[in-house]
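Hi,

I'm pasting everything inline rather than attaching a file, because the server keeps stripping attachments. The sequence lines come first, and each chain or strand is labelled.
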Amino acid sequence: MNWKGFGTFAAYSEIMSLLIVGTVAFDSIETPFGKEEMIVGGSAQYAAYAAGYYYDHIDLVSIIGDDFPESELSDLEKRGVRLEGVKKVIGGKSFYWAGKYHDNLNDRDTLVTDLNVLADFDPILPDSYKDSEFVLLGNLTPDIQISVIEQLNKTPKLVMLDTMNLWINITLEPLMKAISMCDVLTINDEEARMLSGEHSLVLAAAKILKFGPNYLIIKKGEHGALLFDQNNVFFAPAMPLQKVVDPTGAGDCFAGGFLGYIAKSGDTSFENLKRALIYGSAMASFVVEDFGNRRIKTITQADIRERLIDFVRLSQFTI
Amino acid sequence: MNWKGFGTFAAYSEIMSLLIVGTVAFDSIETPFGKEEMIVGGSAQYAAYAAGYYYDHIDLVSIIGDDFPESELSDLEKRGVRLEGVKKVIGGKSFYWAGKYHDNLNDRDTLVTDLNVLADFDPILPDSYKDSEFVLLGNLTPDIQISVIEQLNKTPKLVMLDTMNLWINITLEPLMKAISMCDVLTINDEEARMLSGEHSLVLAAAKILKFGPNYLIIKKGEHGALLFDQNNVFFAPAMPLQKVVDPTGAGDCFAGGFLGYIAKSGDTSFENLKRALIYGSAMASFVVEDFGNRRIKTITQADIRERLIDFVRLSQFTI
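And the predicted assembly:
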């Protein structure tokens, strides 16, 4: 089965590219299963690897220092990820995050956040990126997210926006503007409750959809993810795993897999978004099996196919 | 559609009865949506109502004081629930529990537990109950659960056992014996971790299945439920609801709906247990919509059908 068969078709039509904006960084991570220092991380990096299994035309926007390993950049390029929009700051240091996960692997403490070159990140889209049909705005300040959308030549087919509690707390006004400009908002359950003031996720979703997006994805970590539009709700479970080694990057791989699959299929109907939620969940279920990007870099199309069938077995029934 | 069509068939063959053992009681409940004093509760009562929507031949075993309202007993009888095994203690008071739920509705504090007549509960099965094919052992001391199994004339098709953290802590040895005698064990995620010493629910399930049961159901409240056997895992989501008024009885209605559906179909294959998990989840999704048994007593077969279709919409996809 040729999962990337769409590439053939694209040769005869306009290439629809997937723009991913976010961090490319270093992480130091401690979990109950071990400790890894200064490994490669970052939301855009994770999302690009995940999307790359479904789609070929990925344009990355990020910022790094000259400490970032060339070999990691060329690994991304080998997956068909274009790096023209990744700015390298000579003499600068890449964004660095250090965290320690609790035994339950759901909670974590941030030990270090060194913004470094990210502090001055003001992305300028290369001209060749400006016709992107699919846009994934990783968790960054709302101002950066808005700026990226405003640099596009035309309205994309789908803009997906990730954010976090920090921006809800300190930059609510620009965040609300960014949310109003996206098609799919993705946040976790706690953030959905903060943003809406509703405890019930059904009521929270109804309120948040009035802020502008057509679709809302509420991520619940090991408890799966909910997809809402005005009339429908769909639930994708998380795959129960023997061992979750490192949850870092799960949300990013989920988002990358989700939008990569939609870009591949070119279909933004609710039915296809349901499917994309499962394809994204499959990617999240791989990345957590090892530290950093180790697992997400080494899976095969056969692994993915098998995992998707596991999702079918896990959740399909007849009444 | 005749949901209870099995009754017709039963007239020509042996009636397979569903035995439910548990409490019939009073509760006082406070949730963010209000407070109700001395309303009817109890695990067997909830399970019997839920099972009664799928199956006609239900035999109840419990103990009550003479304070328990006759009208509530006759409501159960009208559903085809036989009460020969419900012992009424003249001059005794029914089991009483009072609790207050936190704002998240997942956590609760027990304010009062008055065992009353339950303190001397030593159920004697009526002869007419002893050929039960399906047995639901509600959360009681393991000694009572074992005693009920030992009074049966023959090995039932399926014995389902519910328990709780208290019995894991204070009566582990008899609990392990009871578990070894059941076919389906149902516990929550925290209890599965306690009982197995494993954090991963996949590893916890593998360990617990070695204790004897063929199937393990791990309940995760608003996050759904997992069904395991040696080779398979299935996940049933909880229905996202606008309003959860009172979570009391959700687990009991889930168990009653689950086993009621299996009794109706007479099929104990994994495929059918998956379906039963959804039928049980539907019952749980109703009972929480109002205080006590108010909602679970008043739903119709059309309500159930509609809710089951909602479950299909919520979780079914193609890859």
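Chain A touches chain B at residues 32, 103-105, 199-203, 220, 223-224, 226, 232-235, 237, 240-244, 274-275, 277-279, 308-309, 311-319 (CB under 8 Å).

If the labels don't parse on your end, tell me and I'll reformat.
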